[in-house]
Each structure stands twice: as C-alpha cells, then as structure tokens.
Amino acid sequence: MDSKDRQIIRTLQAHGRMTNQDLAERVSLSPSPCLRRLRLLEESGAIRGYSAEVDAKAYGLPITVFVRVRLERHNEEDVKRFESRVMDIDEVLECHVLTGASDYQLLVAVADLDAYEDFIRNRIHRIGGIASIDTSFVYGTVKKTSVFPML
Predict the structure, then answer these.
(1) Using the 8-state DSSP alphabet, how is residue 114 labeled?
(2) 3-class DSSP state for residue 106?
(3) N or C, which end of the chain has less CB nearby within 10 Å?
(4) What pLDDT, in 10s, does the model give residues 13-62?
(5) One of this protein's Pfam families, by short name (predicted)?
C-alpha cells in the first residue's frame, strides 16, 4: 500500500458516500486509475466494507458503556467460550483483548440502565468463567473519528 492508497482510504473514511469522480478529484487522480486502486483495496481486504455512521442517541441507544472483563481462567476452552458468546451479543459493538489488569474491554450501547442491568445479568453473567466486571459509563465524548492518521 502506497501513500496514494492511504490517501484514498482516508478520504473515504471521512466522506464515504462520495462518487468515484469526486474521490478521484480529491486524491488528484483521473477516475479510471482511482477506481482501479479502489477495487484493488477492496479485493485485498484493506477496505472491508462501507457503513453509515449513526447517532446512537437518535437511534434509541443513548447509553454507551466501557466494560472491562477479567476471566477466572485463561485456558483455551474458557477463552473460546467467552469470545464466541460475546460475538453473538448485539449490545456489544466492539470487543478488544487487552494487556494489564483486564482481559477484555467491551464497547456496549444500551437504551437505559435497566437495559444495562439486563445485559450484565442475562448475557454476560451467563457466559460463566468471569472473575470480575468493571464498568465505566460514558457521559461525554471529546473526540471520535474513524479516519486514520497520515503515515
């Protein structure tokens, strides 16, 4: 991947609905080479897909929570069980494996505190093998972007 490919990716991250003509103009390419590069980026998996950025509050999920989970044991069976179960929980938007005191950090979106309690009691606790859960509720966002920095 060269700097022009990165420029295409950054432009699409910031303005995903633009036409190939507009993209080509923004990255200083003619439309045919721009489209060829875009298709190669898609085929290689560098661009995995396209989506709309939606306001969670407007959608009906105004509560964002970071949930840090520590497992009781780190054997293959428990890790696979936790990870596969988390994949099936709709409220979990992201799940990251961590170093440090926690094993995982989940980004969770829920409608209200009752929904969060239901999420913990009826989805997370039922996975089993969890030693601790630490929760931080988001009450404001200073910066959120999906545009990568320039290299």
Answers:
(1) H
(2) strand
(3) C
(4) 998 999 999 999 999 999 999 999 999 999 999 999 998 899 999 999 99
(5) AsnC_trans_reg
26: how many CB neighbours lie within 10 A of its CB? 17
| Domains of the chain by start residue, with CATH | 3-44 (1.10.10.10), 56-137 (3.30.70.920)
CB 111 within 8 A of CB 64: no
Rounded to whole angstroms, what are the CA distances from 98 to 32, 89, 103? 42, 19, 5
Question: Is residue 66 classed as helix, strand or coil in its secondary structure?
Answer: strand
Q: Which residue intervals of the chain are DSSP H helices? A: 3-14, 20-26, 31-44, 56-59, 76-87, 113-119
For residue 122, the one-letter residue type is N
